[in-house]
Amino acid sequence: MVTIDPPTERTCERCGRVERWDEDSQTFVADDEKGTPHCLHEWDINGQYNPLQESES
C-alpha cells in the first residue's frame, strides 16, 4: 500500500524564509521572521523529495 506524505516544512534557498504547514488554514505560514515575503521563493522541495511512502501491509 502506498500513502502520500506531503511536506510539513519548507525553506527558501534564496532568502532563508522558513514556512510550516498550518492545518487550520490549510496553507504554509511563516515559521519565523527570517527572510522576506517579497522574495521569489525557491523552495527546497525538489525532484529528490518523494511524497509517496510505501507502508507494510
State the main characteristics.
mainly beta; 32% strand; two-stranded antiparallel sheet; 57 residues; 3-stranded antiparallel sheet; 5 strands
Short description:
This protein has one domain (1-51).
Written description of the protein model:
It is built from no helices and five strands. It has 57 residues and is mostly beta strands. The chain has one domain (1-51). The chain starts with a strand and ends with a strand.
Architecture blueprint of SSEs:
Elements: E1 2-4, E2 9-11, E3 18-22, E4 27-30, E5 52-54
Antiparallel strand pairs: 1-5, 2-3, 3-4
What is the ordering of alpha helices and beta strands? EEEEE
Structural class: mainly beta
Percentage of β-strand residues: 25-35%
Biggest sheet: strands, sense, closure?
3 strands, antiparallel
The level of helicity is under 10%
As residue ranges, the low-confidence spans are: none
Q: Could you tell me the radius of gyration in angstroms? A: 14 Å
| DSSP strand count | 5
Residue-averaged pLDDT: 81
Distance between the termini: 7 Å
Query: Reading side by side through the largest sheet, how are the strands ordered?
Result: 2-3-4
Q: Helical segment tally?
A: 0
